[in-house]
Specification:
By secondary structure, this protein is α/β, with parallel strands linked by helices. It has 9 helices and 12 strands. Bound molecules: zinc ion (ZN).
């Protein structure tokens, strides 16, 4: 049997006039066999009707390249905060947006939506975790889709919830819909949260003990601009940060992670997208010193 190819892609924008078709074309041009996108601007919740987003054209192009829909991931806007107990009206808006977002994700035939769990905004962590789990239950109960929500591991910036595997596990175990919840591990975030991200075997052992490896559905593969445990969350290009190429390469090719799709969210270099180069190096293992200068 032919070995399945490692799924490696990046964040790709979705813009007028080609929308999803354009996203697929861009991802293919960077040598990607999967990608992640926002259904609109990441910083707001305004969304166009899915019928205008050239979804079928994009999916047809994916099929032409033998890329299954499951290689694609949607990222929810980062302003969504299910733990906002300070302003209930804001939380209500987040809930109604997420309900609609699940339907949108389903319209793309994408199986997973990645979500930042939320920020406690000075409230007790335990209360925030309950609020997130209750919010997720409400959203999942009112959705006709079968989309799974991936809770992302966070750097612990400000009052972020989800900067430890325990907190992610606590959200999942507080939910009535654990079958619809899973996890996305971000290498920059766990590094910034204080984990020894370079000891992958120990990371996976701990992840398995606390959350369960079967719930690991995606990896955000990023280097970090800051030292370990800085709680900053600033992504850096592959090989230029505190994690380094060797470790990130090992995440891509680790035997226990071969089936998990990986997505880069590294910064542009000036106007230029770094992804084709980063992906080529991460596939081949051949790192080019100062590769940014060659873009
Ligand atoms: Zn994220």
């Amino acid at each position: 049997m032919e070995q399945e190819e490692i799924v490696l892609g990046s964040h790709v924008s979705m813009a007028s006039p080609d929308f999803y078709l354009g996203s697929v074309k861009t991802a293919l041009s960077w040598g990607e066999n999967g990608f992640m996108f926002y259904t609109g601007a990441p910083q707001n919740t305004r969304r166009l009707p899915v019928s205008s987003l050239k979804i079928e054209e994009g999916r047809a192009l994916l099929r032409e390249h033998h890329i299954p829909d499951k290689n694609i991931l949607v990222h929810a806007p980062y302003i969504i905060n299910l733990a906002n107990l300070v302003k209930p009206s804001v939380r209500e808006l987040a809930l109604s947006f997420l309900k609609e977002e699940l339907e949108r994700v389903a319209a793309f035939s994408v199986p997973h939506l990645v979500l930042h769990p939320g920020s406690s905004l000075g409230e007790e962590k335990g209360k925030a975790i309950q609020a997130i789990a209750e919010g997720l239950d409400e959203v999942l109960e009112e959705s006709s889709s079968s989309v799974t929500i991936l809770l992302e591991t966070m750097a612990g910036k400000g009052s972020e919830v989800g900067s430890s595997f325990e907190e992610i596990a606590a959200i999942i175990s507080s939910s009535r819909h654990q079958d619809r919840l899973a996890c996305c591990l971000d290498t920059c975030h766990i590094h910034d949260a204080g984990y020894r991200e370079d000891d992958i075997d120990s990371i996976l052992e701990e992840f398995d003990a606390k959350i369960g490896l079967s719930r690991l559905k995606a990896i955000h593969l990023n280097d970090s601009k800051n030292p370990r445990a800085s709680h900053k969350d600033r992504h850096e290009n592959i090989g230029y940060g505190g994690i380094g190429f060797a470790t990130l390469y090992r995440y891509v090719h680790h035997p226990k992670l071969l089936a998990i799709p990986k997505y880069l969210e590294t910064p542009y270099v000036g106007e230029k997208a770094p992804y084709a180069k980063e992906i080529e190096m991460l596939r081949s293992g051949k790192y080019i010193e100062n590769w940014k200068d060659t873009l």
